[in-house]
């Protein structure tokens, strides 16, 4: 009997596939840091029973129209805005993601990005490497305190709550905005619900952890940045599409906000010539929110478990609501 065929859009450690080799046939794009070409993905999806893909892979309607026997798409991410859920549902294709396993790691990165932006760590590192440090001075690369300030978390899901726990350790006042109030977070973490505009007006640090949707696309626009305090910092570890990048650029250039720390961008990867990267008050990272060895391995394993479950006729562990 022919074994089900599983295609993976990036190079995957062989050791992770070993437990499944007897039951499934695997093939994967041989490169880890380069996306599979669309022509190759189209070719592979025609014969695949399962697909493990990355958040940067566009699994749209035209691609899915080529799927003849695909049963599951396992996305190696929490977000799944790269997948046309309606098209998948119309073909009875299950879609899964990797929640929970990356929550704490992403919150670590989000708070690290906040700290690095507030204390100007990247500028300070470059200052030494470029041989500019000649002597000590009182306000040399002076940044902003984090402790006892107000953090405004936009999106109080798993990662939002994990960020709130970290903020507690810094004695911060924690505000949040969410589509609906999170009473558990309020009682357990001492968070205070606020309207989006009130949060923007009040917070010293505005942190985006909202998923990308039609409701959240470009929610951080020129009006939003104008509401923020001039010494406020904006941190984004969610999706680049929730930010109008031209509005952010203007807000930074015009001194409407003080600085930004960004792990995600509207179009990824961005080039070194991107306008935001020309500003000294921007800390930019290459979408590494969940990039620890432990967490990325857990994400791979969860994706494989979801694939195996569906191909064996069982329910997946972490299905996306379609």
Helix fraction, binned, reads 25-40%
Strand order of the largest sheet: 8-7-6-9-10-11-12
Shape: globular
Approximate strand percentage: 5-15%
Poorly predicted runs are none
* Estimated radius of gyration: 21 Å
Structural class: alpha/beta
What number is the mean pLDDT? Answer: 97
Number of beta-strand segments: 12
Q: Largest beta sheet, briefly? A: 7 strands, parallel
Seen as an oligomer or otherwise, the chain set is: single chain
Count up the helices.
Answer: 12
**Terminal Cα separation, in Å?**
32 Å
- Element order: H for helix, E for strand: EHEHEHEHEHHEHEHEHEHEHEEH
Task: Write structural notes for this entry.
This protein is α/β, with parallel strands linked by helices and 322 residues long. It has twelve helices and twelve strands. α8 links the parallel β7 and β8. The longest helix is centred in the last third of the chain and has 19 residues, at 293-311.
């Amino acid at each position: 009997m022919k074994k089900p065929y599983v295609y993976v859009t990036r190079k995957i450690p062989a050791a992770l596939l070993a437990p499944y080799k007897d039951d499934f046939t695997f093939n994967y794009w041989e490169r880890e840091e380069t996306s599979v070409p669309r022509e190759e993905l189209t070719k592979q999806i025609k014969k695949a029973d399962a697909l493990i893909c990355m958040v940067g892979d566009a699994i749209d309607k035209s691609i899915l129209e080529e799927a003849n026997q695909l049963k599951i798409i396992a996305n190696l991410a929490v977000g799944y805005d790269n997948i046309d859920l309606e098209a998948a549902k119309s073909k009875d294709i299950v879609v899964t993601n990797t929640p929970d396993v990356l929550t704490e790691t992403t919150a670590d990165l989000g708070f690290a990005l906040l700290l690095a932006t507030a204390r100007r760590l990247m500028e300070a590192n470059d200052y030494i490497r470029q041989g500019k440090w000649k002597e000590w001075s009182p306000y040399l690369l002076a940044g902003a305190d984090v402790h006892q300030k107000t953090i405004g978390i936009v999106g109080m899901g798993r990662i939002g709550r994990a960020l709130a726990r970290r903020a507690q350790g810094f004695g911060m006042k924690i505000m949040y905005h969410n589509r609906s109030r999170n009473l558990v977070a309020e009682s357990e973490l001492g968070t205070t619900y606020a309207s989006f505009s009130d949060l923007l007006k009040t917070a010293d640090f505005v942190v985006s952890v909202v998923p990308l949707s039609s409701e959240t696309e470009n929610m951080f626009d020129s009006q939003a940045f104008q509401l923020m305090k001039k010494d406020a910092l904006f941190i984004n570890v969610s999706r680049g599409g929730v930010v109008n990048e031209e509005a952010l650029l203007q807000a930074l250039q015009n001194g409407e906000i003080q600085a930004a720390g960004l792990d995600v961008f509207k179009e990824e990867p961005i080039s070194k010539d991107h306008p935001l990267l020309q500003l000294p008050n921007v800390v930019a990272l290459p979408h590494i929110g969940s990039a620890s060895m432990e967490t990325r391995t857990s994400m791979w394993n969860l994706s494989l478990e979801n694939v195996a479950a569906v191909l064996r006729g069982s329910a997946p562990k972490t299905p996306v609501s379609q």
